Structures are given as structure tokens and as C-alpha cells.
Task: inverse folding
């Protein structure tokens, strides 16, 4: 039930009749007290610290927010930050990245009014690993050694610059 709500952004993003019927069916069996507790406990202290770092070090270019975290302990924090940044006024894309194990993870969100996030991820990053998604959300998981051949370094500045350049080339023009 929570997965359906999350995937459809509370039924505001790409919800189908099947989603609604599945939710209705599952709702009968749900303990709403537990559901409420799970929904409210979405952020851990670690998530909050990570979000704070992202806020302090974000870059905004052409109404797109970028943040590259460097090495991360869990990729889920990237999603939290990407979703948060999309709530900012005059921001219509959020591109958040970090290095997890031997992969560069890039999470992309947008408002759905422009070029799709999935197509942008595919165009920008599929030559370096798996990349794709939907109109408003996408993800790329790239082999770090393949990225290093392009950037000559796995340093934050080099990787961040490479991501920004790739997105700016493929995401389309700025619309306010």
C-alpha cells in the first residue's frame, strides 16, 4: 500500500486504475496506526544530517539543483534529497549523486513539465552503466571505473562537473 502511494506520489504522478484498485484492496487489511507511524518516521537522524550537507553544498544552474555527495553509506539518502530539492521555488530538476561501493549513483527528479527524467538519464549516462526511469523520476548506476576514464578522477569536483555537463547537454532548455 505504501509502495503504491510512494510510486505515484500520493496518486498525483502516473497513477492508473490498477494502482487505485490495488490500493483499495490492500487498504482493507492495513493497520492505519502502523501506516501513519511508518509514513511519519520517514527521516532518520542520518538522513537529516545528509540533507543538511546537501542544502549547504547545492549548486543551482538553470533552475536545476545539483549535489554530489562523494562517498555515501546508503543510496536511499539520495532519493530523500532529490525529492526535497524539487519542492524549492523555481526549481524544476533535482540531480543528486553519490558513490556507493564501486558505483556512481545518480538520482534525477523533475516536475514532469519538460523532457522526461528517464530519457535524460538514458541519453546522458547509459554508455557508463544502467540508466533510465520515467518522466518525473530516474536513476543511473554507473561503473565508477568507466566514469573515471571520462573525468580522470573520482574526486567530488571532477565527478560533479561531469554530471552537470552531461545533464545540461541532455535535459533541454531552461523553462521558468
Result:
Amino acid at each position: 500500500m505504501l509502495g503504491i502511494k510512494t510510486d505515484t506520489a500520493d496518486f498525483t504522478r502516473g497513477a492508473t486504475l490498477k494502482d487505485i484498485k490495488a490500493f483499495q484492496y490492500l487498504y482493507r487489511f492495513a493497520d492505519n496506526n502502523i501506516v501513519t507511524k511508518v509514513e511519519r518516521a520517514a527521516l532518520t537522524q542520518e538522513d537529516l544530517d545528509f540533507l543538511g550537507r546537501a542544502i549547504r553544498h547545492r549548486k543551482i544552474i538553470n533552475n536545476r539543483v545539483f549535489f554530489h555527495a562523494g562517498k555515501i553509506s546508503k543510496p536511499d539518502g539520495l532519493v530523500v534529497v532529490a525529492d526535497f530539492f524539487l519542492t524549492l521555488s523555481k526549481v524544476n530538476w533535482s540531480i543528486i549523486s553519490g558513490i556507493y561501493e564501486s558505483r556512481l549513483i545518480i538520482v534525477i527528479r523533475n516536475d514532469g513539465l519538460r523532457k522526461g527524467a528517464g530519457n535524460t538519464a538514458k541519453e546522458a549516462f547509459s554508455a557508463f552503466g544502467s540508466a533510465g526511469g520515467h518522466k518525473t523520476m530516474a536513476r543511473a548506476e554507473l561503473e565508477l571505473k568507466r566514469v573515471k576514464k571520462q573525468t580522470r578522477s573520482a574526486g567530488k569536483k571532477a565527478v560533479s562537473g561531469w554530471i552537470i555537463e552531461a545533464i545540461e547537454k541532455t535535459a533541454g532548455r531552461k523553462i521558468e
Notes: The first helix runs from residue 2 to 7. The longest strand covers residues 64-71. Helices lie at 2-7, 17-27, 32-40, 45-57, 76-85, 117-125, 144-151, 156-170. Residues 32 and 118 are 33 Å apart (CA to CA).
